[in-house]
Design a protein that fits this description.
alpha/beta, 338 residues, single chain, Rossmann fold, Histone, subunit A
């Protein structure tokens, strides 16, 4: 008989919807820990612009896969999976239900269904594309991607040169759009866990107001100063980490590309666009269950709505090993938000 898949809960959604604080309430109720699926919170020294959970929240609920890389170190979905799997294994061994939380959809997908390896790197083709980028510009490459693979182009930022070039490389090398290759992988992949994936959503106008408020809070909490310190520390603007939201726009302001007000305007605009791309990604994920967050909701009130769904899921999980022995009752009637 095949070994039963161990359970896991993932909480996803767009930036500023409130995932982190809701997750802390859920984790406290379940007496578990959080595996953070955020491609920017992995970097040390980048706490304000990435909205990394506070020290107080992390003392109350341990968070994993944050602050694990320097801003100039490469980090990708495969490395995330390599960091996350041992944590999840330890939580299962202790009878805890792992809670994966974040807005980086690729990280969650790779964790749950494995990594699509893709074709081996063609260095000659890669150099050819890099030369085209210098001659024609990245905007021209993005327009080419829109024609060759509109689904991938829709979920990528036109300025995400690394991912745009890789998508074009795959298409030119194989003749198959990257989005179609990913769909094939999803259809054939063997699940790594028995997963409940919950998505937080919010009315668009309300989410945009919350994004604007979050940007204002980040600026008040020292985003400009944090960006200045990173630049002074030798972390150049071309790094993947420094191209992330907040740092890209504030670095432009600090280096004289535009004034402060224009940097803030770009940051709010780009964050709204990013939230839209996140929603496009998550809507394509099979089996995701959506939960609406309203204007009057608090982290605690949303957690109270999520817990019965999690309890029902945990109660129907096949009994297997340490998780069953240690936690047979912990994720049902005992799980409550005060």
């Amino acid at each position: 008989m095949a070994e039963a898949l161990k359970p896991l809960v993932a909480l996803v959604g767009p930036t500023a919807v409130g995932k982190s604080r809701i997750a802390v309430e859920v984790a406290r109720a379940l007496d578990t820990e959080i595996v953070t699926a955020d491609s920017t919170q992995v970097y040390r020294g980048m706490n304000v612009g990435t909205d990394t959970p506070s020290d107080a929240d992390r003392r109350g609920v341990p968070h994993h896969v944050i602050n694990v890389a320097e801003p100039d170190e490469p980090f990708n979905a495969g490395l995330f999976r390599r960091h996350a799997l041992p944590v999840i294994e330890r939580l299962h061994a202790r009878g805890r239900l792992p809670l994966v939380v974040g807005g980086t959809g690729l990280y969650v997908r790779v964790l749950l269904r494995g990594l699509w390896a893709g074709p081996p790197a063609d260095r000659a083709l890669r150099r050819e594309i890099e030369t085209e980028a210098r001659v024609r510009g990245d905007d021209a490459l993005y327009r080419e991607l829109v024609l060759a693979d509109p689904d991938t182009a829709r979920r990528l930022h036109p300025r995400d040169a690394v991912k745009v070039r890789r998508a074009l490389e795959v298409y030119r090398q194989t003749g198959v759009p990257l989005s179609r290759a990913h769909r094939r992988h999803r259809a054939r992949a063997v699940p790594a866990f028995r997963a409940l994936v919950l998505g937080l959503t919010m009315e668009r106008a309300l989410l945009c107001r919350r994004i604007d408020r979050r940007v204002d809070e980040e600026l008040a909490n020292g985003l400009v100063e944090e960006t200045r310190a990173l630049l002074a520390g030798g972390y150049a603007r071309h790094l993947v980490s420094m191209k992330s939201l907040g740092y890209r726009q504030m670095a432009g302001y600090l280096e004289g590309d535009y004034d402060f007000d224009e940097g803030v305007r770009q940051l709010k605009r780009d964050t709204r666009r990013y939230a839209k791309r996140q929603m496009t990604w998550f809507r394509a994920e099979p089996g995701l269950q959506w939960v609406e967050v309203g204007a009057d909701d608090t982290a605690r009130s949303v957690a109270r709505r999520l817990l019965p769904m999690i309890e029902s899921f945990a109660a129907t999980s096949p009994r297997d090993g340490a998780f069953d022995d240690a936690a047979a009752g912990e994720c049902t009637s005992a799980a409550r938000v005060p």
